[in-house]
Structure formats: C-alpha cells, structure tokens
C-alpha cells in the first residue's frame, strides 16, 4: 500500500489481485461521504489481504477471533449508526494491507472486546495465547472513573510501556486512530478538534518514528481538514485546478523508463501524487507551483547497487539539482527509512523530484515496523544474544522515552514531557569515547549526551571534548560528532540551574530539575558564588636567580613568560640599569629584536628557588579554588598572587604567580594541578608583555 495516492495509470505494473488502496479510501473520506454499504464477507477481505503478504498464513485463528469479536460486540453500534464490528474489521483490514502478521491481526480484531464488552483478558489469554492478550491489554484504555482527568495521559503511558516490550501494540493503536479519524464527522466539532490535536501532537509523531508513513500521511491529511479547514479547502481547490499535472509527470516517467531500459536496468517507474499536507507545505515554500510539484516519481529496483546505477543514469541524461540530493541508503533515518532522493530537470526545464529505492526498502518505507513482521520470531540460523529476544523494533528514541517516563509519576508532567519529546522531528547519532553510539534528538547538547550515557551520574559532568576539542556543556551536537564526557571525581557536585537552558531531552530536564529541587541550598550557594576577579597580590621582587655579565645590573624575570631554570633565556637592558629576562620563545624577544634592541646573554645562578606564573583552565564547580590552592600548597609552592576571572560558558581561568623552593619541582606541580577535578589544562603564561 502507498502512503500517498498511487497512480492507477500505465506505470503501475503490479500483477495479481487488485490491492485495496487505503490512501484512496482515506482521500474519498475527505472529499465527501461515500456509500455506507457493508462490505460483503468482511473477514474475507481481511483474509485475502493477509494472504497477499503471507501466502502460508493460518487463517483459522482469524476466523475464531472474528466470531468472538462479532458475538461480543453484537447489539453495539457506532455513533454513525453502523454495527460496532465494522470498526475492528476496518482496523484489521488496514493492518492486513500493510503486511502485519497473524498475531497482530488477531489482536486487532479483539482490541476493543476487553474495553467495551464482557470478554475478560483472562478469556482472551486462554483462547488465543499470552501474546495476543498482551497486545489487547496494551491498547485497552484506562477507565475515566478510576483515573479522572489523568485517564488519557496514563493510558498513553501504559500503551508506550507496552510498546517498549512489543511494538505491535502501537501498530494497532495507530490503525485504530486512523479509522476513528476517518469516521470523525459524526462527532461534535469541539470533540473533533480535541481528538485531532492529540493525533497531531502524539500519534502522528509516533507513526513517523515507527516509520509507518502509510498511516502517518493519511492522519496528517485528516487532521489538516479538521484543524485548518480554510487552508485545506484552498489546497483541495489547488489540486483540482491542476489536473494536467499528472500528464507532465507521465511524460517524465516515460522518459525515465526509456533511459533505464537503454541502460539495461530493470526498474519500475511509478508516479506518487503528493498528499494534501505535502502540497500545502510545498506551496508555502515555493509560492506558485509547477505541474511537477504535485507529485514525485518513484523508481523501484531489485538491489541496493541498482539504486546507485539508476541515480547515475538519471544524473547523466538529465540535469541534476544537486542541492536536492540526499542519500538515506548509506545513512538511513532513525525510523528505518532508506531511499535516494534527488531532483532532475528535463529538456523542457520541468523539474521532478525522484525517489529511488528497492522493493524491500519501499515496503519498509510504507509500513515501517509493521513490515518487519513478528520481531520475536528469530531469523533462520540466528540466535539471540545472551539468551534474550532480539528486537529490531526497539529504537533508541523509544528506549529513552521509557527511561524518562519512570521519573515522572505526575500525569501532567508526563503529558507535557511527552509532547516536548515528540516535537523533536529529527534524530542524530553521536559517538561515545568508547566507540558506541548514542541516539539523540536534533538540537541536543553535551548535557543531553551526558544524561543519555550516564543517567544521574551525569550530575557530576564538568565538561566535554567534542571531536577532540574542549567544549562547554551547552555545545549543540551535530550528527556524527564524537563526544568524550568529563566527570568530576567529587560525587557531591551537581548540576547548575543554567543547565536547564541547554537541556533538550526530557530525561536530562527531569533529572536536573529533580536534583535542584532536592538540593535547594546547593543552588543558593552556587548563585551566591563570587562572579568578579579575586586578585591576591604581594610586592613584586626586583631580583632573580640569574646571572648577567654586566656590572651593577639588576635582573628581573619578565612577567609575560616567567622563566625558570632550566629554560633557555635571554635578556634586554631597560631603564634604571635593569635587565629583564625572557624565555627565548617569548613573543617579547622577537619584538625586541625587530626594534633592533641588543640581546644580553643571561645564565642561571646556583640558587634552586624560582618564581613562575601558571594559568589553570577549568570547568566551574563548587570548591574548585580551594582544591587548587590545596594542591599547590601540597607541592610546597607559595602563592605570590592569584587572579580568578569571571566564569564564561561554565569555564574558569585561574592565574597564579608561585614561588617554588626548587625549579625541578615545576613539572610535578603542574601535574598535581591538572589532577584536580574540573581542571583540563595548566600552562605557563604566554600573554603579550608591554615593550620594556
């Protein structure tokens, strides 16, 4: 089945039984009422659609489930006046057309029995097994009498948790909502709007994430018609006015087919008219639409390599629009979607968008996780790792959702967080330091990566390296980045309130908020911390442990580079008979020589004591200054002066001028300072000095 209306013209060369086109049926529901004649032998249609995908399927259990559903719902009617059994039949037919396996269809036929009839879950389990009972229970609503206003969010929580164990639960729910949306016209306008908004905010994003485009696009059109009736009518009129668009696409399809035949590439070229929402979006983006904007061309081939062969031929024989090229085969989307996207211009200048994929890719693109069949039946020759069931349908976003929902017992918080999570319409993949992958929503920061990897241990995160470079926790990550997260050794440290400004995932926001609420005093202390430089200075000495062959000369170590033994040094005479001593690599030396100042040879004396200025770069955290000064004192160095600059993007710069009893202890001192949690670099000063 197609997610967009399939063209019944010459380019559709499928053979065998005519397929029931659910997109066409859905569009018919939008364009006006159709006859309410009951389908003859409704379960026969389900069986026929099921056998088209699973020729060897055992239909006995479907007939058994139909008998129980029909007898238990007998005497019940929908608001439209139709017998209630037409609803589970329609839902099951939708899933059968998408290729769902027998267990899913059985549960679909029974999905309302426990909720709306006297049939019990124990009875379903006894008659049809634990798997079917689990699926039925997963989509059964919680009673409003028990949960009140929290019934809807808690029902979705229950459903999502069940989906985490078996994704087929959500498949049934999506098909259930699609049929309800198709028949929503009998409801009051305000109830239509309420159901449409929940569909837009929760179920359509879930359909997108599960890759079920066939359901997602029709749901989008139905929601569009209810929530934006004026724009919908304008789009409908626009499509009706451009009936010639199909002829332009037909002509392009014929050219494509001829080119591929000449190249000896076996391919099927189909026309894919855009659905209403897609046409509306394109019109907003481009203004006046061209005839070829009302659809796309789909090229189906047998093997992955054939996709690239088709791409090469089309780019050779037509003018490619390079900016439109995307390779979702080499880099599949997070919802299983694979395809090559491109656009080419024909000799007449008409530009057509093209999708190139294999037949299997097309099946997955339309039906998503439903196309994978039963995820709990091991593939032939494959054994689940560690004795657990291998589940290819447990995507990263679902795992993250299930983790954070455990931390939100409040229904309102859960409902708000769920909306925020599902509003993220794209996912990126980043790599951890150990090479493993993390899936995150687009726009996620290092803070989100920390909580995704470490959970509550991320409270101690003090910074990160992104692609080998130091980065603040607020850094937004891109697809393919490598993230090395740095944790403090002090487990008592916690997140800053500022982290909430950069956290995008509910898991991170919930964990940060929970910690801040549990540690209000820590938050106050952090807010009251000094934000200004804190200088501590003593008198600057005028002599140094150096020797120069000039009578009565006074030596002074330059503050710009603070040389210490055994640095290679040189000196320059300044006013008052003073010679300043610089490290030879100091920028001041080059500047003096450019001014034709004569360097003076300087050597180190016998005394071991020395003075040095060090700069410590660190991530801000409580007690950092105290820990640094303690490390300095432990190494036997005396602090002559210290300056702490105001924090900038969670980073702090400390500058210390230190007196060492022995210059040989400088490397050990710098190592000790680097070992202080939060400190990521310690270096000798290299700042420019004034001309002396």
Rg for CA atoms: 35 Å
Report helical residue fraction.
40-55%
Number of strands: 20
- The helix count comes to 26
**What would the principal axes of the Cα set say about the shape?**
elongated
User: How much of the residues is beta strand, in percent?
Assistant: 15-25%
| Biggest sheet architecture | 6 strands, mixed
Alpha-beta content class: alpha+beta
Distance between the termini: 82 Å
Q: How do you describe this structure in short?
A:
The chain has 26 helices and 20 strands. The protein is α+β, with helices and mostly antiparallel strands and 692 residues long.
Features:
about 700 residues; 6-stranded mixed beta sheet; about 15% strand; alpha+beta; disordered N terminus; single chain; 26 helices; 5-stranded mixed beta sheet
